[in-house]
Design a protein that fits this description.
Blueprint (H helix, E strand, L loop, with lengths): L1 E3 H7 L7 H9 L4 E6 L6 E13 L7 E6 L6 E5 L9 E11 L3 E3 L2 E3 L2 E3 L2 E3 L21 E2 L19 E5 L10 H12 L12 E6 L5 E4 L7 E8 L8 H9 L7 H13 L3 E5 L7 E6 L5 E3 L5 E3 L5 E4 L4 E4 L3 E2 L12 E7 L2 H11 L4 H8 L6 H16 L2 E4 L2 E2 L8 E6 H8 L5 H11 L2 E5 L2 E6 L9 H12 L20 H15 L3 E2 L5 E2 L1 H4 L22 E2 L4 H12 L5 E12 L8 E15 L8 E2 L2 H15 L4 E5 L6 E11 L2 E9 L1 H7 L4 E7 H7 L15 E10 L4 H11 L4 E10 L8 E10 L8 H19 L2 E2 L1
Parallel strand pairs: 13-24, 14-17, 29-32
Antiparallel strand pairs: 1-12, 2-12, 3-4, 3-6, 4-5, 6-7, 6-10, 6-11, 8-9, 15-23, 15-24, 15-25, 16-23, 17-20, 18-19, 20-21, 21-22, 26-28, 27-28, 30-31, 32-33, 33-34, 33-38, 35-36, 36-37, 37-38, 39-41, 39-42, 40-41
Helix pairs in contact: 3-10, 4-5, 5-8, 6-7, 9-11, 10-11, 12-15, 12-17, 18-19
C-alpha cells in the first residue's frame, strides 16, 4: 500500500511530524513501513516547457525540431523523437546538465546535425513505471496542464515533491488498505483528530433511478448489499492533473475521469467499485448470481473466461457482464463514447472472491480488498461520494435515487475486558484513565464500571473480536518500547547440542570445506517429481489446498529440488556447480495419521572440478569426484564397513554408473550419475548425485570417536597385480582381500587400473597396495607372505582372478 504523505496530511493533523518520523512511529506501533520515497530525489533541472514551434527534422523521418520556452529570454531548440510532440503543448524539459532517472546526465548535443539543448521527457524518464503511464502517453511524452508556467520545476505539478510511504499490510490489518484506515491509525498513535472529505449529493429532479435500472441478488449471504447509481450526460476525458498524479504516486494507472474516480474512492475508503457503460448493459435489470457451467465472459483484459458455479457474476438478467469483486466485462467498458454511467458499489463474499481471482489469475486491487474484508459502514457513503465526484469531473448529473438489493448495516462488536487483565497480560500498571484515553484515541466507544471496560468496536476494525485483540491495541498505542522488560526467573540448565545436532553441524562444515554450497529447496513439489530417485515409492502426501500444482505434494527425495537448483545455475552459464542440502523427506506408512519425516542429506556436482591453469587443463567432475567427497564424509563420522554395490534399480540413474551405499548390510543411500534422458528432461548437463539417510548415519556414528595410540612398530607394504574379468567390481575384490587379510591388514589402496587390446576386451588389470601392521610387535616377512598367498588363492578360487 503506497500512501501519499500530502494526502494523509489533509485527513489527519501531522503538524511538526516528518514523513520519516511518522514511518518510524508506525513501524513501532504495528504497521510496518517498508520505505519512504520522495520521487523527485536524484532529479534536477527538470522544468516546464512551452512548445512554441514544431517542425520535422530535415534528415529524419521520425524526429522533430522544436522551439521551447523554458522561462528564459531565448527559446531552446530541442530535437525530439516522440510521435505525439506538437506545438502549443506544455511539456517536461530536462535542461542541459540536468539529471533524469538512473542518474543519467543530459548534455547539450547534436542530433542528425541539429543542435539540441536538452531533452523533452516522458514520464518514464522521470522514474515512473511504464505500467503507470496513461495509455495515450505510453509511447510518447506527457503533456502538462495549460496553467503550467514555463521554467518552473515540474515536480510540484506531478506531486513528485511528495513523500510516498510504502506500508507492508498484514492480512489481519486490511483496514489499513485505505486512507481512512491509515488516518485512523495515525490519529490513534498521535492522539489527533481525523478530518475526512465529504460531498453533498446533487441529484437530477427530472430523472429517477427507477427509469434506468433495478437490481436483484439471488443469495444475500454471498452479496450482503448491491447498490447502483446512475450518472447521465457525462463527458469522458482525462482526469485533472492532481488526480492523475495522486493515482500514479499510489501505484495506479490513470484511465479517464470516471474510472479514476472509482480508483480514488478505492484508495480513500477502501471500497472497490466498478463503472459500467449504461447503454451497453443490454437491459434495465441487474441480477447478481452464481455463474453456470458453459457461460463465458470476456473481461477487461480482453481474455475470454469459462465460468463455473464457483464464480459470482453480475448479469443483465441473462448474460454475465462482470466477475463480482474481481473484474468487469469488456463489452460494458467505459469508453470515450460513454454518456451514461452505471456505478456499482457492493459487498461480495470473501471466499468466493478469492476463489474466482485464483481460478483466473486475476489478483486485482479490488479482489485483494474483498478477500481481506472492507469497512461495511462506509459502503453507502462511498457510493454517494463517487457518484457526485464523477458528476463534478465529467459535467454529468446524478440520477435521483439509488437501486439497492438490501440496506446492509453491520452492528458494532462489543468486547468486555478488565483493567487487571490488560495489566497482567502486558506487565504494566496502567490506570483506568490511561486505558480509557487509549480507547478514545482509537475511536472506540466504551463504558467503564469498577475497572471493567465494555468496548464497542466499529465495523472499520473487523479484526478485533476478543479480549486478546484489545490487549494488543492497548500495547500498540501505549508503545511496545514502553512495556517493562524482565529477565526470566527460575533455575536453568546449561544447554548443549544433541548428538544428532553435533553430527549435522560437522557434516555442514565438512561439505562446505570440500567446496559445496548449501541449498535450501521447497519441501513441496509436483506429484511427478515427488517420487523420483526413490526405490520404495510411498503414497504421496498431498495438500488439501495447494498454492499451485508445482507446490502440491511433499517430497520423498531431496534430489529433484537440488537438480532444479543445478538447472537454474547452468542456465545462467555457471560452470562449477556443487550443492548439498540437509532436509526432511515425507513418507506415508499404513495405519499412520501423519506422515513420517526423515532427515536426509543430498549432494549434487556438475561441470568443472578444477579450473584450467598454465600447466594443466580443466578437470571435469565424475563419479569418483563425488565418491571422494562421500568417503571423506564417512571418514569424518568414523564409519567403517562402507561398501559401494553397483545397481541399476533406480530409473532416474545411469545403470552403469550408480551404486547403493551400505554400511555392513544396512543401505544408507545411493550415488551415481543422473540418467542422460532424465538430465535432458531437467535441462541439466552431466551431473552426479548422492543421497544419504542422515538419521541412520547418526545412529551408526559414535558420539565420541575411539582414540588409539600411534603404532610404535613399522608397517609392511605389499603390492599385488591382478588380471580380472571386467564384470568383477572393485568392491568384490575388496571384500575378498578383507576377509582373508587377517587382523594385521590396516589399509587397501587401488593405485592402478588398465584396460586395453593386449589384455583382451573382457579383461582389466588392477594393482593394489596392502599395508600390514602389528601394534604389539614387529611383523616378519614370513607372516605377511602367508597372508598374501591366502588372499591370492581366494581371489583365484572365488573370483577367477589371475594374480600376476
Amino acid at each position: 500500500m503506497l500512501v501519499s504523505y500530502k494526502w494523509l496530511k489533509k485527513l489527519v493533523d501531522l503538524e511538526n511530524i516528518t514523513p520519516d518520523e511518522l514511518a518510524d512511529k508506525m513501524s513501532r506501533s504495528g504497521i510496518e513501513v517498508e520505505d519512504v520515497v520522495v520521487p523527485e530525489e536524484g532529479l534536477k533541472k527538470i522544468v516546464v516547457g512551452d512548445v512554441k514551434e514544431c517542425v520535422p527534422h530535415p534528415d529524419s523521418d521520425h524526429l522533430s525540431i522544436t522551439q521551447v520556452d523554458v522561462g528564459e529570454d531565448e527559446l531552446y531548440q530541442i530535437v525530439c523523437g516522440a510521435p505525439n510532440i506538437t506545438s502549443g503543448k506544455k511539456v517536461i524539459v530536462a535542461l542541459p546538465n540536468s539529471r533524469i532517472t538512473g542518474n543519467v546526465k543530459i548534455k547539450k548535443g547534436k542530433m542528425r546535425g541539429e543542435v539540441s539543448l536538452g531533452m523533452i521527457c516522458s514520464l518514464e524518464e522521470l522514474g515512473y513505471s511504464n505500467s503507470l503511464v496513461p495509455k495515450e502517453y505510453a509511447d510518447g511524452i506527457y503533456f502538462l496542464p495549460e496553467e503550467a508556467i514555463p521554467g518552473e520545476p515540474v515536480f510540484s505539478y506531478l506531486d513528485m515533491n511528495d513523500s510516498i510511504i510504502e506500508l507492508s499490510i498484514t492480512p489481519n490489518r486490511a483496514d489499513a488498505l485505505s486512507l481512512h484506515g491509515v488516518a485512523h491509525e495515525v490519529a490513534a498513535i498521535y492522539d489527533r483528530k481525523v478530518n475526512f472529505p465529504t460531498k453533498e449529493l446533487v441529484e437530477a429532479e427530472d430523472a429517477s433511478i427507477e427509469e434506468f435500472i433495478s437490481v436483484k441478488v439471488e443469495d444475500q449471504k454471498e452479496v450482503p448489499t448491491y447498490r447502483m447509481r446512475v450518472i447521465k450526460d457525462v463527458e469522458i476525458k482525462e482526469s485533472p492533473m492532481w488526480l492523475q498524479a495522486l493515482l500514479m504516486n499510489s501505484g495506479i494507472r490513470p484511465i479517464n475521469n470516471v474510472v479514476d474516480v472509482t480508483n480514488y474512492v478505492l484508495l480513500l475508503f477502501g471500497q472497490p467499485q466498478h463503472a459500467f457503460d449504461y447503454d451497453k448493459l443490454g437491459s434495465k435489470e441487474i441480477v447478481v448470481r452464481r455463474g453456470s457451467t458453459g457461460e463465458k465472459l470476456t473481461t477487461l483484459d480482453e481474455v475470454e473466461r469459462d465460468l463455473t458455479t464457483e464464480n459470482l457474476v453480475i448479469t443483465n438478467g441473462t448474460t454475465p457482464i462482470a466477475l463480482g469483486g474481481v473484474m468487469g466485462g469488456l463489452d460494458s467498458e467505459i469508453t470515450k463514447t460513454t454518456t451514461t454511467v452505471a456505478l456499482e458499489t457492493a459487498l461480495f463474499d470473501p471466499t468466493l472472491t478469492r476463489r474466482t481471482a485464483k481460478q483466473f489469475g486475476l489478483a486485482s486491487e479490488s479482489s485483494k480488498r474483498f478477500e481481506r474484508g472492507i469497512n461495511t459502514a462506509t459502503v453507502e457513503e462511498a457510493s454517494l461520494f463517487a457518484a457526485q465526484m464523477i458528476a463534478e469531473l465529467s459535467g454529468g448529473t446524478v440520477v435521483k435515487g439509488e437501486a439497492m438489493s438490501h440496506d446492509y448495516q453491520k452492528e458494532d462488536v462489543v468486547v468486555a475486558i478488565t483493567l487487571s487483565k490488560i495489566n497482567r497480560s502486558l506487565g504494566t500498571t496502567l490506570n483506568v484513565s490511561e486505558v480509557a484515553a487509549i480507547f478514545t484515541s482509537l475511536g472506540f466507544a466504551h463504558t467503564e464500571n469498577q475497572e471493567k471496560f465494555v468496548v464497542s468496536i466499529p465495523p472499520r476494525r473487523w479484526d478485533i473480536t476478543i479480549e486478546a485483540d484489545l490487549v494488543e491495541e492497548v500495547a500498540r498505542i501505549y508503545g511496545y518500547d514502553n512495556l517493562p522488560s524482565t529477565l526470566p526467573s527460575g533455575s536453568s540448565v546449561a544447554g548443549k547440542l544433541s548428538k544428532n545436532q553435533k553430527i549435522t553441524r560437522n557434516i555442514h562444515q565438512r561439505l562446505e570445506g570440500n567446496g559445496l554450497n548449501e541449498a535450501i529447496s521447497y519441501m513441496l513439489t509436483t506429484p511427478e517429481l515427488a517420487t523420483k530417485f526413490v526405490l520404495d515409492k510411498k503414497e504421496v502426501v498431498a495438500l488439501d489446498f495447494p498454492m499451485s500444482e508445482e507446490r502440491s505434494v511433499a517430497r520423498q527425495s531431496l534430489v529433484p529440488g537440488l537438480l532444479k537448483n543445478v538447472a537454474y545455475n547452468q542456465a545462467r552459464k555457471q560452470q562449477q556447480v556443487a550443492f548439498y542440502e540437509i532436509g526432511n523427506i515425507f513418507e506415508v506408512y499404513p495405519d499412520q495419521v501423519l506422515p513420517t519425516e526423515t532427515k536426509h542429506v543430498a549432494l549434487a556436482v556438475s561441470g568443472i572440478l578444477a579450473a584450467k591453469t598454465w600447466d594443466s587443463p580443466a578437470q571435469m567432475v565424475d563419479f569418483y569426484s563425488l565418491k571422494g567427497i562421500t568417503d571423506n564424509l564417512f571418514e569424518l563420522l568414523g564409519l567403517e564397513g562402507i561398501r559401494y554395490i553397483p545397481t541399476s534399480e533406480y530409473e532416474e540413474m545411469h545403470p552403469g554408473r550408480t551404486a547403493q551405499i551400505k554400511i555392513n548390510d544396512t543401505v544408507i543411500g545411493f550415488i551415481g550419475q543422473v540418467h542422460p534422458q532424465f538430465a535432458k528432461e531437467m535441462e541439466i548437463k552431466e551431473t552426479y548425485i548422492c543421497e544419504l539417510d542422515l538419521e541412520t548415519l547418526c545412529e551408526l556414528t559414535k558420539e565420541e570417536p575411539d582414540y588409539k595410540e600411534v603404532g610404535k612398530y613399522p608397517s609392511i607394504k605389499r603390492d599385488i597385480a591382478l588380471l580380472a574379468d571386467v564384470t568383477v567390481s572393485n568392491q568384490d575384490i575388496l571384500d575378498v582381500i578383507q576377509s582373508k587379510g587377517g587382523k594385521y591388514l590396516v589399509d587397501i589402496h587401488l593405485f592402478d587400473v588398465f584396460q586395453g587390446e593386449k589384455l583382451g576386451h573382457h579383461k582389466k588389470s588392477l594393482a593394489y597396495s596392502l599395508v600390514f601392521r602389528n601394534d604389539d610387535a614387529t611383523l616378519v616377512d614370513e607372516e605377511i607372505t602367508t597372508v598374501v598367498e591366502k588372499i591370492s588363492t581366494a581371489l583365484s578360487d572365488e573370483l577367477n582372478i589371475e594374480v600376476r
